[in-house]
Amino acid sequence: MISQLIFLVLFAAAVAFFTQNVRKIRRNILLGRAIDRSDRPAERWAVMARVALGQSKMTKRPVAAVLHILVYVGFVIINIEVIEILIDGLFGSHRVFASVLGGLYGLLIGSFEVLALLVWLACAVFLIRRNALKLKRFSGVEMTAWPKSDANYILTTEILLMSAFLLMNAADYKLQALHYGHYITAGSFPVSSLIAPLLPAGTGSLVIIERACWWFHILGILAFLNYLPYSKHFHIIIAFPNTWYSKLQPKAEFNNMASVTAEVKAMLDPSFVPETQSGRFGAKDVTDLTWKNLMDAYTCTECGRCTSVCPANQTGKLLSPRKIMMDTRDRLTEVGKNIDQHGKDHDDGKALLDSYISREELWACTTCNACTEACPVNIDPLSIIMEMRRYIVMEESTAPGSLNNMFGNVENNGAPWKYSNADRFNWAK
Amino acid sequence: MEDQNLNKSEIENSKSANNSLSSGEGRGEAIEVPTMAAMVAAGKVPELLFWVGCAGSFDERAQRITRSICKILQHVGISYAVLGTEESCTGDPAKRAGNEFLFQMQAMTNIELLNAYEVKKIVTGCPHCFNTLKNEYPSLGGNYEVIHHTQLIQQLIDEGKLKPQDGQPFKGRKITYHDACYLGRGNEVYEAPRSALEVLDADLVEMKRCRSNGLCCGAGGAQMFKEPEPGKKEINVERIEDAIEAKAQIVASACPFCMTMLRDGVKHHEKEQEIQVLDIAEITAQANGL
Fold first, then answer.
1. Which of A68, B3, B66, B103 is the most exposed place for a label (fewest CB within 10 A)?
2. Which terms are listed as keywords in the entry (chain A) (predicted)?
3. Nearest CA in chain B to A316
4. Domain that holds residue A388
């Protein structure tokens, strides 16, 4: 009874704390500017099903894709088992589904065990790729101590959780064989039955192992749940809405700024009266970006596919699309903390531009869309780069000199070069 | 001071003037190209507007692409016109550089002209013009059917109106196609340029980075009009290494800016004798004996 009570309190606390942090993320995302991404819902469901649920964009790197799908399927399916663990924890039952499901239960547990083993192995390979093989994709200026640790924490936790799950089953299996207490026979346990011989024979120690692993596993899951909002691992949740809200237009189509349209119309036609528009052109800080840009930042799992295909990055320029996303998230977290501590209008004297992202990075982009094509969860770093260029050009007028010359040429000659428009048709002569 | 700000393409013009590589069709005799103004004055309505673009109008190397497109249009007898001196920049480089004001000014002025001529269908000689006219003009009031010249060429081949001649120079040559970002990833036009090459009976090879994985030439996003940021290599040099690795004799391109960058990459590696860079339009025109 006491253990049920402790379980209830811990479970409620975990859910409450998680909910609070998710609300904070939601609030932070909604600090962004409005953008309508609710059109064409049928297409959006299809994109989400294909890209998030079906992981279609992962396949470009087959090794990572196979390993990732193992962890993903394992995570989703083993979570069915977590439902049983929660019920057992709250009501003091043991393997509550075993008597209800009969033979099917054994089959389910069997498949969970095989998946748990595969998850274990996949995470081990992932750790080796990051720490021993040191794949180039996982390094870079933005891959500082925290992002590297974050990845290792996630993988280690998953290995520990799977180990606890299998060890728990192994002790349970052995107790079942001994027909001890409430440990009813519940299937063949294909993986843990192989571990069982390694465990002590005494029922007392077996019960301790089984209970310890049970508690470690479920408390580990609740702790991991609460780690998500602080980690890149949050993608397991937010990747779904993020792909639903994907940009559906052709990649090369950039939005036409409505605020500019109003001003240009007023310039071309003096009788046109624009609705009063306030706010700055482009983005200096995260709050000038759209909420979708900010959701992108929380979705980024720092895999580096974007940076590894970026032509600027590959040729040694400072620009790294992954850094753009990580900077945006870091700055947004900082802005959120400022609001929590100092209220809504606090100015900390910092901004995404210059404090986080340098102009040199922004001007190195060729707008080639390799990053958006590569992202497995449809993040759009290019749109953030463009918004920041817009701020630099339209609010500060501090574009590089050569680009200002190009602007002057377009304005005066109708071409980006210094040629007279009268010569435009000379090619036919 | 102005001279220091000469951009790549102007430098390109002076460089390429005595470049032995500049096969493609020669400058040749003046060609008769109808303008929209003249057509309308004569009471005629052309079926198609050919949007030449700034590079196609002013860059000497790209002018040859423009002339090839005109020859193809004339050969198949499509009624078309150009805007001539009435054409102006679509605003693409301004927009990619962040100058939305200038872009929309250009767009609205162009749309006014295009709508006044009641233009319905446009073919462009440049993926950047293509993207801007097709995707970014509609919400500003410019609604046209816009195709890139490689799509037109594919269509004409499918209709049997273009057919490589016997003894055309591309038979058996090793050709690779460089995807322009604004055509490929940007608008998912991957097949049209390739199908124009497939009829040549050539040895077609793909570079290791192609189609949706294609590597940018380095010119997009207004990079054409500025010096690159410091790094360890130029993007076009990196790209041409893919072509060298594929052992291509001809790199086919579909964008005048890619053309400049790729040719510079070839020069950097001193491969002018081994690798030619030709536009799909030039290749098609030559193969058809135009």
1. B3
2. 4Fe-4S, Iron, Iron-sulfur, Membrane, Metal-binding, Oxidoreductase, Transmembrane, Transmembrane helix
3. B231
4. 258-421
